[in-house]
Design brief:
The structure is a single chain. The protein has 241 residues and is an all-alpha fold. Helices cover 76% and strands 0% of the residues. The longest helix is centred in the N-terminal third of the chain and has 33 residues. The N and C termini lie far apart (51 Å).
């Protein structure tokens, strides 16, 4: 029987920097932000800022899980495929729902309010499934030191992950990882660009799309340049000699 990471202290979870502590910290932050959003005393401006922060954290967090943690769990646990498939389905449902919400510009639309409440319910269910069912298996399989190493890798991926929903993207490597860089560039440029009107938002997204396309073209050319690849391999060999 697995022991939920929600009931264990820091030392039991591998110490500071452990992937289990990092996960639980994000989950607690999400829960607090959702509670503040639903507080009837929150102003429209506060809810708008909270929604932006929630969306950014949800998707960078989930992308890092799908890239680093779930492949690892599938390798170490006999039921890893079944366990991760269920959570990946939850992530897909959250992607589709939040994508629908972000297309609705009328903040007073009753449908939008209902969808946000539904999204929060899905996020909370996802948190429970991860903390109670999936993450305890990492605690059982790895030493404290290894959990901290996994935590560092997860944090690195999360820092450069997409911050908005992309329902059409694969939930598993290598598909999600190959899409991660251009999607992250697009999302994060859009997040940084201030806008106060629909026209300003469209302009920021056009700029982000142009930069993303340039980055994708650069990487594609670099990956298919045989002379450069050969030169880089030779340079690595010399440095090792």
């Amino acid at each position: 029987m697995t022991l939920s990471i929600s009931t264990q202290d820091a030392s039991q979870l591998g110490g500071e920097g452990s992937i289990l502590l990092r996960q639980r910290r994000d989950h607690a932050q999400l829960d607090a932000m959702m509670n503040r959003y639903l507080n009837p005393h929150s102003t429209p401006e506060q809810r708008a800022a909270l929604w932006k922060d929630i969306v950014q954290l949800v998707f960078s967090h989930a992308f890092a899980e799908e890239t680093v943690l779930w492949p690892l769990l599938r390798r170490i646990h006999g039921d890893g495929e079944l366990l991760t498939a269920r959570v990946e389905q939850e992530h897909q449902e959250i992607n589709e729902l939040i994508a629908r919400i972000e297309k609705t510009t009328d903040t007073d639309d009753p449908s939008r309010t209902a969808w946000i409440q539904q999204a929060f319910t899905l996020i909370r269910q996802d948190i429970r499934d991860e903390e109670d069912e999936l993450l305890p298996h990492l605690r059982e399989a790895f030493s404290d030191r290894r959990l901290r190493q996994i935590g560092a890798a997860w944090e690195t991926v999360r820092a450069g992950a997409p911050t908005h929903p992309h329902p059409a993207v694969s939930r598993r490597p290598p598909g999600n990882a190959l899409s991660g860089l251009p999607l992250s560039a697009f999302d994060r440029l859009g997040d940084l660009a201030p806008f106060t009107s629909p026209s300003a938002r469209r302009a920021s997204l056009v700029t982000a799309a142009a930069v993303t396309l340039a980055a994708a073209i650069f990487l594609a050319r670099r990956a298919h340049h045989p002379i450069r690849q050969q030169t880089e391999r030779m340079g690595k060999k010399k440095s090792l000699a």
